[in-house]
Amino acid sequence: MPDIHRQSSWDTNSPSAPESVHGPGPEYGTGQAGAPESEREMLVSGADAEAGMQDTAPPPAGEVTPAESAPAPWGSILTDPKPQALSEIGLLGGGTPEYWMSGIPGNVNVRDLSIPGTHQSASYRGTNYFDRVRCQSQNLRWQLENGVRYMDIRLRQFGGSRGYFDVYHRYWLEQRFGNVLQICRTFLNSHRSEAILMRVSGDGSWSDDYFSTFRHYLDTYWGSYGMRDDFYISSSFPTLGQARGKIVLMSGWPYLGYGLPFSNESYFDIQDNDESTPVFKRQQINGQLVRARGNWPPKSKMYVNHTSAWSLTKTPWSFASEMNPYTLDRLNDLYTPGTGVGVVAMDWINRPSGNSNTVNDVLPKAIIRYNPITSATTGPRVLTLNGPANAPASGDVYSGHAGQSFTLVPAGIGSNLRIYYRIVNPYNGLALSMGADSVVNAQPVNPWNDQYFYRVLRTQDEEYTIKYYSLEGVYNGLALTMSNTGVVTGTRYNNYQSQNFLLPTQGDGSTGIRSKNYWVGADSSREASNAVATQETQGIPDNAPLQD
Questions:
Q1: Which domains does the chain have, with CATH numbers?
Q2: Less packed terminus of the chain by CB within 10 Å, N or C?
Q3: How far apart are CA 512 and CA 406, in angstroms?
Q4: What is the per-residue DSSP string for 142-200?
């Protein structure tokens, strides 16, 4: 992920402005991954503090307070190099791997997509013979935020016909299937332009209880609620429009009897020789890439290419350290717009160079760029401040454009001891301005009251309210408001969903200001499912759920 913003003289209308500056960042609503609710931040006014909202004047533990002399984003500092412009990496529309499906038309069949995947996706933790079973170093959330859309999940069933699944790779990987599903649900609820293809298979032997337990997960796992609505279940490949916001179920060994039959050669062309030599494995990887690329869309089946292997003398990482650089070279050498390579499922997908210290998204991007990405067709509405001065703020679909990056710069402390901030676009240097006349626009930085804002935590959820703050302590009751059509104004605070925002730390280190409720071109009805279950608290006969 890229480093933090510095003030820049870039004009977003000039040719030198980057088409996109965002890479993957922490999940919505958290300034820092895993932060407790008391440390999640929001923007609020004094009147609301009396209504139960809490101010968060000091930054949460682990965050960095920006110095006024060198403004930096409010949030975790990220240290990887800044990504290339989208035109240079072949990504348009969604802007980053986190939203790469947002720029693909909904009528494209998922069978024709080029999809980054991971082999043994959950095998990033576990203790027994770990060097022999570990195939990833980054957790499922990192994988999803960095473009992985194919997951390989192996299960063992326990507890009778309405039991539960543990996730295995020969040994227990210290999490349960419900944990995996909750991570996917959380991601999809905040990334409704995306879809996840999940291959589910058994690890070891299975009985009838395996099948009945899976039905239990679908229909009754969380009390009276199951996970069926989170899945796309059909024996036909869906279009992306049908699959958005869903987990596309694929099963094999055993086939569950519904969903896509992963073990059926009429549906899938799979290269998965995992007991091999480096020379032979390279030949297999290249051969499958060439076959998939040569079968132009619409493809007759889905191609799946596993780059993973092991032997008695080589661990999965030993193979990956050789196969990943080779695969990246072949993906680049074979690239032709309009072709496709299908699913490429990799071990250690964050390490393209074979260096054990690497953590980046180069391999997913090399696969994603094969897709017919055109422009952002779906995604969250986000505050956009492109300039020039006096240009109105808007709520455009997220595209990773520089106008969607903000730095919250502490500007002073009010009489009530709250910190107030300027909200500045670090690329064009313009500040968010909200006047008493409800007009919200871009203005040069100035000491006027209409550029002062402050934030507070709403403990009941992860939504943020951005409210106008008067330096003199006079509150006019205005709050930043974004309609479902993207119109941005200042209106009286009423806690409507149009005033609820998420403030994620984006991949370039900036802060995004994104509507929690309004999306473009994606089903927003899934929002209600958030309240169904946020923890895996039922259906497990022993200890509390493990978290990713």
A1: 97-369 (3.20.20.190), 407-473 (no CATH)
A2: C
A3: 6
A4: HHHHTT--EEEEEEEEESSTT-EEEEEESEEEEEEHHHHHHHHHHHHHH-TT--EEEEE
The per-residue pLDDT for 529 is 34
**Cβ atoms of residues 259 and 213 within 8 Å:** no
Peptide bond into 254 cis (omega under 30): yes
Q: CA-CA distance, 8 to 26, in Å (whole number)?
A: 24
Closest C-alpha to 400, from 432, 435, 365: 365
Written as one string, the DSSP assignment of 353-372 is: TS-TT---SHHHHHHHTTS-
Q: Which of 87-91, 149-153, 214-218, 244-248 has the lowest mean pLDDT?
A: 87-91
Q: pLDDT tens across 322-371, in order?
A: 999 999 999 999 998 878 999 999 999 999 988 877 788 999 999 999 99
Beta bridge partners of 150: 117, 197
**Tokens in use for 333?**
């050498």
| Dist CA 479 CA 495 (whole Å) | 9
What is the distance between the terminal CA atoms of the chain, rounded to a whole angstrom? Answer: 20
pLDDT digits (tens, 9 = 90+) for 431-473: 999 888 889 999 999 888 888 887 755 544 545 555 543 323 2
Cα separation, 452 vs 57, in Å, equals 15
State the pairing for strand pair 467-468/453-454: antiparallel
pTM: 0.63
Cα gap 414→44, rounded to integer Å: 13
Q: What percent of the chain has pLDDT over 90?
A: 42
Mean pLDDT within 406-430: 86
